[in-house]
Amino acid sequence: MEISVEMLLPYLSQKYPSHMATVIEIEKLALDLSGHERATLVANLLESLPGILCDEDEGAAEALRRDDELERDPKRTITLTQLDSHVRSRF
User: Fold this and answer.
1) How many other C-beta atoms lie within 10 A of the C-beta of residue 41?
2) What is the per-residue pLDDT for 52?
3) In the prediction, which pLDDT does 42 show?
4) From residue 73, how far is each of 15, 59, 76, 77, 81 by CA, in Å?
């Protein structure tokens, strides 16, 4: 049986006028579901969310630029040991 938040809201909104109480009650009800039902609910909830991976701050573009830079000049890389040593020396 597939249970969605939409199915639960009519019952919960009658009991609790506050938004937080509704979320708490939904969580309590969800935790009573079987593992399969919880997994289905989680999948449905995640699918309903907008994509969160975006490049508003150009972070991905910067990572790709740095990767390309290191591909062209591998001498610019350092080992993890060198990084640790550098970090420790700053303290």
Assistant:
1) 20
2) 64
3) 92
4) 64, 21, 6, 8, 20
Instruction: Provide the token pair at 73.
Output: 């000049």
Which residue in this structure is represented by tokens 């399969």? 36
Contact 76, 70 (CB under 8 A): yes
3-class DSSP assignment, residue 48: helix
Count helices and strands in the chain by DSSP H and E runs:
5, 0
Q: What is the pLDDT of residues 21-72, one digit of tens each?
A: 688 888 999 999 999 999 999 999 888 887 665 656 677 788 888 899 989 9
Q: CB count, 10 Å around CB of 22?
A: 17
Helix/strand/coil for 33: coil
